[in-house]
Amino acid sequence: MSDLLSLPDIKTIEPPQENETDMMFKVEAVGPPERCPECGFDKLYKYSSRNQLIMDLPIRLKRVGLQLNRRRYKCRECGSTFWERLISVDEKRSMTKRLLKSIQEQSMSKTFVEVAESVGVDEKTIRNVFKDYVALKEREYQFETPKWLGIDEIHIIRRPRLVLTNIERRTIYDIKPNRNKETVIQRLSEISDRTYIEYVTMDMWKPYKDAVNTILPHAKVVVDKFHVVRMAN
Ligand SMILES: [Zn+2]
């Protein structure tokens, strides 16, 4: 019989209990760990166990809980003890990694309450998963410091806003509410790996020049011809 859960390292040990809205599976690891994580020795024995509730993706719109009998092992060689590791489980959130991924996606478009109700996790956990996810995305985003930075402005609601761009990738790096010298200096100094920026393209506006000379003295300034022409006009 194929396992309804289809998880690589967890198996169902008896038929699930269910009602109108929820399903509960009794589960355990598919196999024991092969080696001691401390010394690599392969003679281990069961030391203790505990029950742990792990939430998983809903099945036919029913919330799914896994009652996991988690075992602890002891090494015959070095004597260290350890809980079995499961690659499908996110330990921090006590849920399967596939449920975590689904919550990250859903929380972008639904309310935290809606997501919480549909998967059977409290709202606070949903909010924390979302916060972690956004922070991770921001770190990835920050990582893309352009080698060739563009400093420009766009007019939004009749005011010029600072726009930093990645010239090579033709992407926007950041937008700030104004283009004052302090704002430009502040934003440029927040780029921790700014020595990576080799070229800067910008117009002749003095605050930009001052900011770049102060914060990015190593970068070569490539004056934007379009802006020069516009200024001459
Ligand atoms: Zn060992």
How does this structure look, described?
This protein has helices at 97-106, 112-119, 123-143, 181-189, 206-215, 225-232; strands at residues 10-18, 22-29, 44-59, 62-75, 81-83, 89-90, 95-96, 148-156, 159-166, 171-176, 199-202, 220-223. It is α/β, with parallel strands linked by helices and 233 residues long. The protein folds into 2 domains: 10-140, no CATH class; 148-232, Nucleotidyltransferase, domain 5, CATH 3.30.420.10. Strands 1, 2, 3, 4 and 5 form a 5-stranded mixed β-sheet that branches. The protein has a 5-stranded mixed β-sheet with strand order 10-9-8-11-12. It has a two-stranded antiparallel sheet with strand order 6-7. Strand 8 (148-156) and strand 9 (159-166) form a beta hairpin. The protein starts with 9 loop residues before the first strand and ends with a helix. The relative contact order is 0.09. Bound molecules: zinc ion. Residues 149-233 form the Transposase IS204/IS1001/IS1096/IS1165 DDE domain. Residues 33-78 form the Transposase IS204/IS1001/IS1096/IS1165 zinc-finger domain. InterPro entries: Transpos_ISL3, Transposase_DDE, Transposase_HTH, Transposase_Znf. It comes from Veillonella rogosae. This is Transposase.
